[in-house]
Write a structure and sequence with these properties.
mainly alpha, 59 residues, 4 helices, single chain
Length: 59
């Protein structure tokens, strides 16, 4: 991963790490990946999945 990817979108790494450590997220992510035929994700797609989870959790 290059430095440009790390700076892209001013990521909140603390929040991202907390999400990745959440067992509910692991279950949700697993189910998301079951529904995708192509599991080769770009970094942007992976970040979008995490952001989508966090937005849905807030609603």
């Amino acid at each position: 991963m290059n430095e440009n990817n790390l700076n892209q979108g001013n990521l909140d790494f603390e929040k991202m790490n907390a999400t990745l450590a959440d067992p509910e997220f692991a279950n949700w992510y697993y189910n998301e990946m079951l529904n995708k035929l192509d599991s080769n994700l770009t970094m942007d797609e992976f970040i979008n999945i995490i952001n989508s989870y966090n937005q849905n959790k807030l609603q």
